[in-house]
Amino acid sequence: xxxxxxxxxxxxxxxxxxxxxxxxxxxxxxxxxxxxxxxxxxxxxxxxxxxxxxxxxxxxxxxxxxxxxxxxxxxxxxxxxxxxxxxxxxxxxxxxxxxxxxxxxxxxxxxx
Length: 112
Description:
Blueprint: H1 12-73, H2 75-94, H3 96-111
């Protein structure tokens, strides 16, 4: 068996570095704990914000679905009004002379 080499006494610098390192180890763990805690807080905040966005999107979706359903309900009324408008326009455009004559004849009848 070989004997370990004799150790020399540590210098002031080596002792200071050793003490400094021994103090840093708990600080590293504390820093890690602090960062993990901050990470959890941030993740919780992000999670809550995403839930709020999802709730807003669901509300918007229900509103859009309501507008679409009202639009579908009014299609029949729109078709009826369009047919009425076409009938009125065709009636006015087909015989404007007859309307003028009808107006003149009514005026003549009123004078007689």
